[in-house]
Amino acid sequence: KNQVEQSPQSLIILEGKNCTLQCNYTVSPFSNLRWYKQDTGRGPVSLTIMTFSENTKSNGRYTATLDADTKQSSLHITASQLSDSASYICVVSGTAGTALIFGKGTTLSVSS
Amino acid sequence: SAVISQKPSRDICQRGTSLTIQCQVDSQVTMMFWYRQQPGQSLTLIATANQGSEATYESGFVIDKFPISRPNLTFSTLTVSNMSPEDSSIYLCSVEDPWAGGRMNTEAFFGQGTRLTVV
After folding, report:
1. Which listed residue, of A27, B50, B80, B108, carries a Cα 20 to 30 Å from A99's Cα?
2. B87 phi and psi, to 5 degrees?
3. Minimal CA–CA distance to B45: which of B109, B91, B111?
4. Distance, in angstroms, between B74 CA and closest chain A CA?
5. Buried b (16+ CB within 10 A) or exposed e, A49-75
6. CA–CA separation, A73 vs B45, rounded Å?
7. Of residues B25, B21, B18, B24, the one with CA closest to residue B10
8. Each residue's pLDDT tens digit in chain A (112 positions)?
9. Eight-class DSSP state of B23
């Protein structure tokens, strides 16, 4: 069964600290893996998208890694800011045109 | 990138009534999707809105409950019919064009969502 599991479910960190979110998937065949940020009351916004041949991709303070062999991905946030408080969703795509598989997300709270 | 306007952004509705959600995209796109996001849950695909033909529904969702229109390549509507409190959720419109320009790995873009509360 195609699944995407994320951990932790929620996380609280102090402003300025780093954190890493995890994503494990069992989707096959695999086309790409995406990380989205969803602010409260808003739709998800893309942070990164990686194909099976890419190991890492950065977008500002966000760095995503992918190990297609172990089917694991991580999202590292550096020097967190209050505006990073949001839900971070890992999404895996099979072949082009097929439905995306969404994780439940990790809720990150950054406090001052 | 695609800019999606979704409305209403939120609504409170009486049970037994229906609500139609609109999704307008600033460019022509091949694929438009409707998702539901229940509290604390991941996004669940309701259906794929096909231009010029009936929508394709996922398991657990039926056309009588969630009729969808797709009159052209930039617009779609989702109706939540005969609502009950269990339909309270966020409904999201999304677009993606995986074959645009021959590219395989395009992004999915989402509307801001419609937060529906049924009382």
Report:
1. B80
2. -85, -5
3. B91
4. 18
5. bbeeebeebeeeebbbbbebeebebbb
6. 23
7. B21
8. 889 999 999 999 999 999 999 999 998 888 889 999 999 888 999 999 898 888 999 999 999 999 999 999 999 999 999 999 999 999 998 876 567 889 999 999 999 9
9. E
CA distance B17 to A9: 35
CB A40 within 8 A of CB A58: no
Q: Is A103 on the interface with B (CB under 8 A)?
A: yes
pLDDT at B104 over 80: no
Would an 8 Å CB–CB cutoff place B113 in contact with chain A? yes
A104·B111 Cβ contact <8 A: no
| Closest by Cβ to A43, choosing from B42, B44, B113 | B113
Instruction: Share the mean pLDDT of chain B.
Output: 89
Give chain B positions within 8 Å (CB) of A32.
105
- Give the model's confidence band at B66: pLDDT under 50 very low, under 70 low, under 90 confident, else very high: very high
d(CA B18, CA B87): 11
Which one of A5, A33, A100, A106 would you mutate to disrupt binding with B, by most B Cβ within 10 Å of its Cβ?
A100
CB neighbour class for A46 (10 Å; exposed up to 12, middle 13-18, buried from 19): middle
